[in-house]
Please model this.
Amino acid sequence: MSGRGATVLYDVPGPRARLRNNVLTLVFGVVLLLVAYFVWTKFDEKGQWDGKLWEPFLRGDTWTELILPGLLNTLVAAALAAVLALLFGAVFGIARLSDHRWVRIPAGVVVEAFRAVPVLMLIFFAQYGGSLAGLVVTEFAAVVFGLTVYNGSVLAEIVRAGILAVPRGQAEAGSAIGLRKNQVMRLILLPQAVTAMMPAIVSQLVVLLKDTALGFVVAYADLLNAGARVVPANYANLIPSVIVIATVYIMINLALGYLANWLERRSRRSRKVAADPAAAEAAAGGEVALMR
Amino acid sequence: MEAVVDELPVILGAFWLTVKLTVVSGVISLVWGIVLAAMRVSPLPVLRGAGAVYVNVLRNTPLTLIIVFCGLGLGTVMSVQFSRDDLSLNSFWLSIIGLSAYTSAFVCEVVRSGINTVPLGQAEAARAIGLTFLQTLRLVILPQAVRTVIAPLGSLLNALVKNTTVAAAIGVMEAALRMKNLFDAHGDAIIPIFLGFAAGFVVLTLPLNLLSGRLARRLAVIR
Model:
């Protein structure tokens, strides 16, 4: 049902259906407008559309002093966690496919365990567990730890599924020309697997970026912290501020989403990749594709 | 280990709250998500547009932001109240609004992808016997669509179990925040407490995975 959209669910409307559709469009349009009006007046009663609550966002210093530093912190945490999570994912994804049982089983336990635990719990654990071990764990380190371990485990599953989706002949051909095991992995399997899994990997990185907002709970000075604590503390404008911050998040995530789509289209077009992205993604479990 | 045994009633209470959050917001998101999916495939451009805007906005906003908006924005600034004297009940319902609003966007996309798997002939046959759009959807398309997406819906539910911890951001005493409190109370037993809570989440999510896998196989539409 792609291409022409959902049109197979209903016929091309004739004169009567067109009339009915127009009436219904009018009715639902009015209903939606009423809902919007209701929300608008409720916020208006509390003075949320007051110009002086929104005015700070027209001034440069609100952005340069309060919001952009938060955005920078969010992006730094996301970037560092993304790099570490990719490393974690590559190492554990490959380790789970090891021929040695003493490597394969512990790696599997680690990946499955960290996938089952909520990120927020990992962040709390990093803070308290770190100080137990005598380390000074900053909010930044705790957030990066939580995001790395959780998303790294999910990426490990993606990498594993990607490698498994490369046709077996590829590895066999590699062995046949005398490559060692790590050469087969490094030169033959990984490049194809990563290309095939690129869209899923980018989607997971979007999840990671969104999850940096959890830093708010432990008072890491990220974008959400700027929008929900710092700016409202200065101008008492929580709702306008959260709406503005949400817009920033949405624009960043939509941009990354388009990147993921573009990569997917490109990898589908290219015939060089032997692994089938769709099959690999399905093998990695629904969550991979879904929670973005 | 002692700390975990001593605090067992408290820990179980926290997980009971997690379960309540999951079940209530899960049911709301399922219903609302199916309604949204129906809107997104309807013949009316107004509804399609409204559904698309809703899904794209909610899916691309961090859950923490949504919950904070519900808790502080709706709760404190707009004084939306569910109970005059019980503050914890208030934040419980506010976080349910946030969780449901967020999860339903994902449910909508999953159900919509399920609708795409229903063969064209099914919809055509339904129209040929004179069913209206809503009847086609309700009697023919959705029953088949939902059955094909049981497994993805299961992983969404699984993610929801973990996402309920975000309600800690507005002070709901579910598992994660309770764990932090116990860390404060028992500084010497951080690892056992963490393992206890981690085990709790495994206990909650593992049966869900098995069950959704079995359901998906049993209810699969044979084509």
About this structure: Residues 60-95 of chain A form the longest helix (36 residues). Confidence is low (pLDDT under 50) at residues 1-6, 285-292 of chain A.
